[in-house]
Amino acid sequence: MTGHVAVISMGGTIAMAPSASGGIVPSLGADDLVASVPGLAELDVKITTESLRSLPSPSLGFADLVALSTRVRQEIAAGAVGVVVTHGTDTIEETAFFLDLTVPDDAPVVVTGAMRHPHSAGPDGPANLYAAIRVALSPDARRIGTLVVMSDEIHGARFVRKNHTSSTGAFVSPGFGPIGFVVEGDPRLRGIARTGLTLPADPRVSDVRVGLVTVAMGDDGALLRRAGDLFDGLVIAGLGAGHVPAAMVPVVADQAVRIPVVLSTRTGAGSVLRHTYGYPGSERDLLDRGLIQSGFLDPAKSRVLLTLLLAVEANPTAIVEAFDRFR
Ligand SMILES: NC(=O)C[C@H](N)C(=O)O
Questions:
Q1: What number does the ligand 1 atom closest to the CA of 11 have?
Q2: In the structure, what pLDDT confidence band is assigned to residue 191 with cuts at 50, 70 and 90?
Q3: Is CATH 3.40.50.1170 the classification given to domain 4-189?
Q4: Closest CA to 167 of 181, 191, 151, 187
Q5: Using an 8 Å Cβ cutoff, are 198 and 104 in contact?
Q6: Structure confidence at residue 1 (pLDDT)
Q7: What is the pLDDT of residue 3?
């Protein structure tokens, strides 16, 4: 296969070094990261680099993701066999899902990062970047959407979550598992079907405000009373299979009349239900009151999807249909 692999860096621990004032901060660019990876010369592929952002991933926003998605598509149009994005791990799952929804091209798009910074004992960044480049070169990684490669595991963007603060094995796809592994440098993948949903990386995403609230026992919805004034949409990380306390129902229902309210779950795995429970605050009650079920999408990914939909002024039916693809 001809062409090149484009490596685009966004910052994150993979690109951090100790600062004079203490702690590590983003310092390295894409060139430095590629230079730190042993074994790339043997791959016989041209690697191009671009340092698009140098930020800790908690400080990335939707405007950055629009810029990234645009650059990824430009690289593919210019003949890249695959694109690798290096990124902080805190929000890697949101960026990967954003790219999954906005980059419909066949070429693999692989996002990676590091849990240990380059100056630590045993940094995982070089190994992760090597594995990501190998996946980007794999014909089996074509046409299956954006992937996250960490710790020699290959995860689908719509499933993956960070579920540990410090482990190098922090990434899981709850209920689904990795869709492949990098074995002795060689990607072994089982395919996944794309959802078929593509949305534009519209710059208006920066103007859309979608709130995300996690529900807890005894919650009366006080935080949500002004949600319709403050936000264009809301995601509720509900209890269990998509439930809230009965006391919260009137508040949630009021907001759902004003703005789209998506019901997800705080459990970390599984789909919200639709038909089982009939008590006040149950999923049936909330869906009857106009909330939109998130399917298997977790709260953070639901927020990404709702933001992209609201940016293009999707109507209520289109919003429901989009989320229905993740059931
Ligand atoms: N491991 C990491 O990359 C975490 C870092 N705080 C970030 O997301 O930028």
A1: 9
A2: confident
A3: yes
A4: 151
A5: yes
A6: 44
A7: 75
Per the CB < 8 A criterion, the answer to whether 144 and 154 are in contact is no
| Spatial separation of the C-alpha atoms in residues 199 and 148, rounded to whole Å | 20
**Closest C-alpha to ligand 1, atom 3:** 88
Same fold, 4-189 and 203-324: yes
Atom of ligand 1 nearest to the CA of 91: 8
Domain ranges of the chain: 4-189, 203-324
- What kind of fold does domain 203-324 have according to CATH? Rossmann fold (3.40.50)
Q: How confident is the model at residue 35 (pLDDT cuts 50, 70, 90)?
A: very high
How long is the chain?
327
Q: Which residues are catalytic?
A: 13, 89
Pocket test for ligand 1, best of 9, 57, 60, 128 (most atoms within 8 A of CB): 57
- Write down the pTM of the prediction: 0.98
pLDDT tens readout for residues 285-298 = 999 999 999 999 99
Q: Is the Cβ atom of 90 under 6 angstroms away from ligand 1?
A: yes
- On whether the CB atoms of residues 150 and 113 are closer than 8 A, the answer is yes
Please indicate if the annotation marks 27 as binding a ligand: no
**Would you give the distance in Å from CA 216 to the centre of its chain?**
24
112: Cβ below 6 Å to ligand 1? no
Instruction: Categorize the per-residue pLDDT at 310 as very low, low, confident or very high, splitting at 50, 70 and 90.
Output: very high
**58: CA distance to ligand 1 center in Å?**
8
Nearest atom of ligand 1 to the alpha carbon of 115: 1
- Paired strand residues for 149: 154
Q: In sequence order, what are the residues at sequence separation of 6 or more whose Cβ sits closer than 8 angstroms to the Cβ of residue 152?
A: 127, 131, 181, 182, 183
pLDDT (average), residues 159-183: 97
